[in-house]
Amino acid sequence: MSECTHLDQIQRVTPSANGCEDCLAIGDLWVHLRLCLTCGHVGCCDSSKNRHATKHYRSAGHPVVSSLEPGEEWAWCYVDQVALAPA
Ligand SMILES: [Zn+2]
Ligand SMILES: [Zn+2]
Ligand SMILES: [Zn+2]
């Protein structure tokens, strides 16, 4: 079983926007929201056509996101491909 080795990159972040900030910038729509736990970037999930959360991971190198959906408390590490238990 693999474990996430990036817990030191998780910060106390404040969501940067009320929606996917990259979709808001281009006037597009998203399905679900993901919060970057390193910098607070809000991006859309892989079910959204723009996949901004994954793009943020690729461009910024921030590995861990959590769900921003109400009632969802999981987090995910893109590098290790593992789900993290809620803190
Ligand atoms: Zn990790
Ligand atoms: Zn987006
Ligand atoms: Zn980030």
- Fraction of residues in H or I helices: 10-25%
CATH architecture: 2-Layer Sandwich
What's the alpha carbon Rg, rounded to whole Å?
Answer: 12 Å
List the uncertain runs: none
What's the CATH topology label?
Answer: Herpes Virus-1
CATH class: Alpha Beta
The helix/strand series, from N terminus to C terminus, equals: HEEHEEE
Q: Write out the distinct hetero groups bound to the structure.
A: zinc ion
Number of domains: 1
What proportion of the residues form beta strands (DSSP E)? 15-25%
Structural class: alpha+beta
Q: What sort of overall outline do the alpha carbons produce when their principal axes are compared? A: globular
**Major sheet:** 5 strands, antiparallel
State the total count of DSSP E strands. 5
Describe this structure in words.
Helix content is 17%, strand content 20%. The protein contains 2 helices and 5 strands, in the order H-E-E-H-E-E-E. The two termini are 19 Å apart. It has one domain: Herpes Virus-1. By secondary structure, the chain is α+β, with helices and mostly antiparallel strands. The site of one zinc ion has 9 residues, from helix 1 and strand 2. The site of one zinc ion (ZN) has 7 residues, from loops.
